[in-house]
Specification:
This protein is mainly alpha-helical and about 300 residues long. The protein has a single domain, classed as MetI-like (MetI-like fold, Orthogonal Bundle). It has 14 helices and no strands. α12 runs antiparallel to α13.
Length: about 300
């Protein structure tokens, strides 16, 4: 007796093929927008690609650009300023985010309005934020000079953005003002998920407000705090818009962080090979720091979950 031929299976009966077909467009987009540019820039970082010297465009130097960067005092100066900027902004933004989120988690009149108001600084475009703070600290008509003059703390207007130390910390302040709302929102959302029974149990056991914060709230918020630290660190290390708009790395390279140094070498001096190497050094440093965060802030059980 002959076998009855089996009809061809439809795509719905072949989940592997169907999944491949559905994921293919996304995979092509990711490859074109992420994988290919990364591989290309990595290849460029291994060459002495300098558009001011076209003859060197295809000269392979291996790790020469990386070695040149590590020997360059200017690199280490910008690298140090970058980490100082990141350390100060991330620590202050996280502390402020936790403190303000704890306040906004309480019941008080107008809480919804205040919560909506908190998001406004973050909603501003980065360029608008930079221009706004540049005008506030302007030497001729800035609001900050006018305020200090009106209350008698200044007799003459100061060039705040012309002072190396003041300019760098003004940029840090502007970054904190804009980026803190993100930390507030993330931590506040996590606080909403903490069961009230935990607070009540801690209160019944005689825990004070500070003890409740340390023993109940902080342990529950550890995964969210880790996310805040990772995001804030990455954003701080790649900060460029604010510095470009407010100071352009000045005065006297006082605000010249690594991202602006990369911009200078890549797009002003047209050293694409050296600029790509600098970008990968920054990426590697950020990756190592994120791994340190994850290892020290999360337990094995939290990592597995």
């Amino acid at each position: 007796m002959s076998k009855i031929p089996r009809p061809h299976q439809s795509l719905m009966e072949r989940p592997g093929i169907l999944a491949f077909i559905l994921l293919l467009p996304t995979a092509i987009i990711i490859f074109g927008l992420l994988v290919f540019p990364m591989c290309s820039s990595l290849a460029i970082s291994l060459t002495k690609m300098d558009l001011l010297n076209p003859a060197s465009a295809k000269e392979f130097v291996g790790l020469g650009n990386y070695i040149e960067a590590l020997k360059n005092p200017m690199f280490w100066m910008t690298f140090g300023k970058t980490w100082y900027f990141a350390l100060l902004t991330v620590s202050i933004e996280t502390a402020l985010g936790l403190s303000i989120a704890l306040i906004l988690n309480q019941n008080f009149k107008g809480r919804g309005f205040v919560r909506g108001l908190i998001i406004l600084p973050w909603a501003l475009p980065y360029v608008v934020n930079g221009i706004m703070w540049k005008w506030i600290f302007d030497a001729n008509y800035g609001a900050f000079n006018a305020l200090l003059n009106q209350i008698g703390l200044l007799k003459s207007y100061q060039i705040w953005l012309g002072n190396p130390i003041a300019a760098f910390h003004i940029v840090i302040f502007a970054n904190i003002w804009k980026e803190t709302p993100v930390a507030i929102l993330l931590i506040l959302a996590a606080l909403q998920s903490v069961p009230k029974e935990l607070y009540e149990a801690a209160t019944v056991d005689g825990a004070t407000g500070l003890q409740c914060l340390r023993k109940v709230v902080i342990p529950m918020l550890k995964p969210v705090i880790m996310v805040v630290l990772v995001l804030k660190t990455i954003w701080a290390l790649k900060e460029f818009d604010l510095i470009y708009v407010m100071t352009k790395g000045g005065p006297a390279d006082a605000t010249n962080v690594l991202t602006y140094y990369i911009y200078q070498n890549t797009f002003k001096f047209l050293k694409f090979g050296y600029g790509s190497a600098l970008a990968y050094i920054l990426t590697l440093a950020a990756t190592i720091l994120v791994m340190v965060y994850v290892k020290n802030l999360l337990t094995e059980q939290e990592l597995e979950s």
